[in-house]
């Protein structure tokens, strides 16, 4: 037999001793008198009532927290609604501003186009007037030189009626 075998046997003996003592200890506890049982029962009931009170308090606190959360939720929804309404108003304002700017730009463009057309018309009228005056003077000059209206119309590449009209107006 080695030292380890001896230690093993010793530990087994100590374990058996503890097991036997635990049965004896458990048996002494079971033999409580009536007063101790009544005290244990009363303390158990007090603990149960305390636990019930805590449960009721927790339920009340739960209700309070739930109501507060519902209030905050409603406030948050209200704020979201206000934000969305303000966003719609801002978009409407932006749209009207863009439309106003587009209208102003189109008015500016149309006035610029009108001014350009006016200047073009004036220059064309001046050119036409100058050409007409030059043509009229050429008609009169050729008439003074003795050319007939048909010859003047062929030379200047204009109609005979126009030549006759100019000659009749200036004579």
What does the model show?
Among the domains are: 65-108; 126-171, Arc Repressor Mutant, subunit A (Orthogonal Bundle), CATH 1.10.10. The chain contains four helices and no strands. The radius of gyration is 60 Å and the shape is rod-shaped. By secondary structure, it is mainly alpha-helical. The mean pLDDT is 80. Helix 3 packs across helix 4.
Q: Could you provide a short overview of the structure?
A:
The protein has 171 residues and is mainly alpha-helical. It has 4 helices and no strands.
- Work out the number of β strands: 0
Helix content: over 70%
Distance between the termini: 166 Å
Count of DSSP-assigned helices: 4
| Main sheet makeup | none
The pLDDT mean sits at: 80
Please tell me the CATH architecture of the domain at 126-171 by its name: Orthogonal Bundle
By secondary-structure content and strand pairing, the structural class works out as mainly alpha
What fraction strand? under 5%
The stretches of 5 or more residues where confidence is low (pLDDT under 50) are none
General form: rod-shaped
Return the CATH topology of the domain at 126-171: Arc Repressor Mutant, subunit A
Task: Based on the model shown, name its key terms.
171 residues, Arc Repressor Mutant, subunit A, 4 helices, 92% helix, rod-shaped
Topology:
Elements: H1 3-30, H2 34-144, H3 149-156, H4 160-170
